[in-house]
Every structure is written in C-alpha cells, then in structure tokens.
Amino acid sequence: MINEQTTLFDGQRFEPLAARLRPETLDEIVGQQHLLGPGKILRRIIEQDQVSSMIFWGPPGVGKTTIAQVIANQTKANFINFSAVTSGIKEIRTVMQQAEESRRFGGKTIVFVDEIHRFNKAQQDAFLPFVEKGSIILIGATTENPSFEVNGALLSRCRVFVLKALTEEEIEKLLRRAITSPKGFGKQDVRIADDVLHTIAAFANGDARTALSTLEMAVLNGEQESDGDGEVTTVTMDVVEQCTSRKSLLYDKDGEEHYNLISALHKSMRNSDPDAAVYWLARMLEAGEDPLYVARRVTRFASEDVGLADPRALEIAVAAYQACHYIGMPECSVHLTEAVVYLSLAPKSNSLYVAYETAKKDALTQLADPVPLHIRNAVTKLMKDIGYGEGYQYAHDTEEKLTDMQCLPDSLLGKTYYQPTRQGLENRFKERLEQIKAWKAKRSGKE
C-alpha cells in the first residue's frame, strides 16, 4: 500500500514524461549498477524483503525516488511517501502514530522522506524513537552530504547508499526507451538522429529527469509533417538548441575537447591573461560543463600555480566552489569569473607543487626509512622504555620558538624540498625560511 501526500488538483494533473516512465521493477532502472546489478547488496536487500533504514545520497535525477518506489512495489510493507518540504512535526507525529498502530498488529511501514536534509534537527528527532523501536523503516533521500545534514543519532541507525550521476550511455538508453515505450512516445512516429540524442544526453549532465524533460520539450516543439501513413515528428539539432538555450557549444565532457578547454583555461591563468581565461571559462560553462568540475580545477590552480605568492588565492577559489555548490548555474558563473580573474592577476609560484613532487619521489623510493625515535609519540610504557620521544625538543619552550632538532630521516638529512620564490607575498616566507636556516646553522655550529 502506498500513501502519498496529495493536493486538491492531483486528479487534474498532467503527468510529465519522467513520471510516466518511472520504473516499476529493479530491471527497469537505468544506472546504479554498483548497487542494483545482479548480486549487488541493495538489490539483494530489496529482493529478499530485508529493507532496513537507509539514506540515498546522490545528485538530482539519478533515481533516489525511483528506487524508493520500486521498494514500495516489491516489499511487503505499507509505504508512505513523505515530503520534507511540506511537512512539519505535527504531520510527522501523526504518521508515526499510524505506523506504531500498524506495528502492533504485525504490520511493517516504510516511510520515504524526499530531501531529508531540508528537515531541521527537531523534525529529524521526531523520527528517531520510532526508528529505534522499529515502528518504521526510514528511507531518506538527499543531495547533500548526510554527514553534515542528517542528525548523528539518526544517521547512525541508517545505512548510506551513494548513488552516482548517470553516464551519457545510460541516459541515451533511457531516451531511446522513452521514444519507443508506449508510456512515452511509442504511439507516435518520432524521428531523432543519434547525434541529437547524444546532445540531449550530454546536456543532461547525468540527470535523467533533465534528459527526459528536454526530450519531451523537443518532441512537443518538433517539426510536424505527414508522410502518408500519419503524422511524423522530427526532432532536429536546431530544435534541441532552442529548447536548451544552447548553440553548438555542447561537447563530449569525457572527450578530447573537454581536456582541451580546461587546459586552455589553466594555461591562460598561468600566463596572467584574464581575458583569455574568462573566454575559456565561458566556453566551458555555456557548453554545459559542470561548474563544480571547473571550480575544482580552479582550486587546484590556486595552490599549484599561485601558492604562497598570494595565500588568499586558495580562499577565493574555495569560496567560489562553495558558491557554485550553493546556487549552481547560471548564477554561479560570476563567482567563477571572480576567481579566474583574481588567479590570473595574482603573482605566480609553483614552489609548493615542486616541493611535493620532489618529496613524493623520495617517499616512494625510501619507504623503509624509520621515523626518528625522538619525534615518535610514546603512547605506552614499553614505547617510552625503548626510547620513543627521548630527546624531543618542544619548540614552544624556547625563546625563539625554534630548535635544531632533526626531523628528517638520517638518509635525507639536509635535503631541501620547499624552495620559495620572491614572487608576491612568498618573498616574506623566503626571508623567514632563510632566517630559520641561519639560526639552526649557527646553533649547530655549521654556520
């Protein structure tokens, strides 16, 4: 039995394509094979009717609600679809009391909460006693990290399943099904070329709902003509471009052009060319690139190519990433532009990148070098007895807040990894490092 919160106008509602095509069985679900493939854990749980409280975490349009509704079709339980957007504590308690009554008579109730991260702490706490008693099995869906958005006590009683964005191949499979299925456009003569389908799949960016909505709009606006046997609807690239407000900028985000454009952006910033950098940024975003991908690359650039020449560069890049996460496209384009222009104009230094890469080579070739005893923690009496921590010098106990204690393994003594430049603020770090080294050399008599 499925209970859903309804409105006065539900009976008059037109079902969009995504709703008409919603799978009813596990085999109809496209994607999430790491969880729902043959023998995979979530599939076994559902097929064996051993569903326990769980959280589905993943981006929009990847099947969180769909899997919950498949559970409703296959499990032997009362299923309640609960909205975190429209429900308060009063509604929660009413539903929980109904579930408790059902449990007393041997019934089982699954409560599905979409967008559970929208509930505040008090609302989430209202579920807790009923989950603990077994009155309900809670299934929550969220696009946010449940570690931060779901109460710890509630989260500890739920198993988290991470859902992935659909691949373009999976979305194309879904679009072909929509064209041929009687639930979709199977009763119409819809003609659409493979490259047009691929364009819609690329635009969807892993979101099945976006893909189906775009296809539906494109079919409704397709070119109508009669071929003698009936009406034919042809979906062209021009129609798709009009429906998505995209020109011919869409590109394969897993192909060569994807890497060419991010390379152009990175190298334009490195060459301190803000105009070129903003152009390549616009090329990527208007082509449908994930702004979070661009923000991650910009954040990497902040430390790899600017570093301590301007420590604020990383702060601005991280802030831009957070802004992209909070508000998405198209609004976040201006935040990325701010970061890209700032990084283009910032003084450049790759000394942090060089330091790590050099240290990495030594770390990989000298894995057996022991940590010097005096900088090991003596967490047991035995460790203390055999010399752990003996001779350790606590820098805060000295007037200079410095010691000449050796921290590298003997085989690497005197090795230098970080070599600061004189660019921007890094010149201050260079001067400070030179002072520290001079003090240590004098202290050890190696001046």
Radius of gyration, whole Å: 29 Å
Largest sheet: 6 strands, parallel
> Number of helical segments?
20
What percent of residues adopt helix (DSSP H or I)? 40-55%
* Strand composition percent: 5-15%
Main features:
20 helices; globular; 447 residues; 9 strands; six-stranded parallel β-sheet; three-stranded mixed β-sheet; alpha/beta; single chain
Task: Compose a concise summary of this entry.
The chain contains 20 helices and nine strands. It has helices at 17-20, 33-36, 41-47, 64-74, 89-104, 121-133, 146-149, 152-155, 168-180, 194-204, 208-220, 237-244, 256-270, 274-286, 291-306, 312-327, 333-345, 351-365, 381-385, 426-444, and strands at 2-4, 54-57, 78-83, 109-114, 137-142, 159-162, 189-192, 223-226, 231-235.
Structure characterization notes:
This protein has 447 residues and is α/β, with parallel strands linked by helices. It has helices spanning 17-20, 33-36, 41-47, 64-74, 89-104, 121-133, 146-149, 152-155, 168-180, 194-204, 208-220, 237-244, 256-270, 274-286, 291-306, 312-327, 333-345, 351-365, 381-385, 426-444, and strands at 2-4, 54-57, 78-83, 109-114, 137-142, 159-162, 189-192, 223-226, 231-235. The longest helix is centred in the last third of the chain and has 19 residues, at 426-444. The chain is globular. The chain starts with a strand and ends with a helix. The model is unreliable at 4-12 and 247-251 (pLDDT under 50).
